[in-house]
Amino acid sequence: MQRSVLLIWFAYIAIFTLLPMGSSLVFGPHPVFYSLDSNLYIQLISAFFLIFGAAIPVFVKMRPFRLRRLFGLINLYFRVFVIVFILSHILVYIGFGLDFRHSIRISSMGFLGYFYALEQVMIVPFTFFVLRLAVCGAYEKLSEYKVFLTIYGLVLVTLPFNVFNLLCGSLFIIVLYFPKLLTKKLGITSAILLPSLGIVALVGATFIIKGADNFDGLEAVARYLQYRISIWYTSTELIANMPLDSRFYLFSESFADEASINTVNANVIFNTLFANPRVGAGPGIFASSLYLLPFPLNLFLVMFYGFMVSYTLKCSGLFKENRSLFLLIAVFCLLFPFFSSPIQYASLELMPLINLVLSVTFLIVAIPKKSISNSDVLAFNTSKGDTTLEK
Hints:
With 391 residues, the protein is an all-alpha fold. The protein is built from 17 helices and 2 strands. Strands 1-2 form a two-stranded antiparallel sheet.
């Protein structure tokens, strides 16, 4: 596993700890949050332990763990469910539209609700599997999936129920038709261009979300982005000042609240009354550990979590060789559910637990193919319907 995977963790710390910390010190906390009590030392020490735990599988020789004899079964289920999800996704859209998640409960959607829930817990594991097939060299399998994955990717991009649908659909298309992005090394041009495109994309997304009528210039964009990246930072600040018995009470409340601990956490950090009582806000890795243990005992949970995620990535083989910045960004985005609210696993929330188990399984199942290098890239022969290697 190359050291480049640590960029994922440094990005996590920079975006969701250091940037909110700096913006709060310079511009003040965002007004939607309750007033913060400074716990900068807890944030910085937690960041160190997270990086330390994540670095152990990188710098210490550890034998990767891979599930054997499951590839054929996953391959079969993958093929079947892609077809099922194409049909069910379209039917859910026809029946309920795109923006139904905050107004309709899954239990009231009937039979389609089960397929919607199943799709949402399997789409991230599926995407990890597609990335591994491309990076680890299972070319004939990608060729078999090409038609259905193309259709499914287009459905997810044009009819996204959430940002992960859009992300995973885009990755399907990119892996199938632009595979060189997975192995292309970072150059000076891309190092300058990609952050610039990222800023433009964030501004554009903010414009779309807030609407043209409510778009008040770059200052409004900056404030909105501060709000979006400060949720985990604010959660840590506020939870750290809460008595331990109060944290345990909130944690126990999440077992009775069908909307999950993310809803409980939203009530802790937001001073704004939302129209929808089911609005949630994941607490992030640091605050999740503080719900369970006081500082500094929580640091062991932080370190262990960083270690397990890095070790799983090592077992996946995604970063066995130097990979592209694009692949790092893709994996970083796919890890968001595991960054956002690890405490959901402790509170036994069914959908996050299923997503975790499936993701780990799809990441560590042994793929019986050789890896590809920068000079040995997957190419699809569309005229013959098979795959070849360009050397």
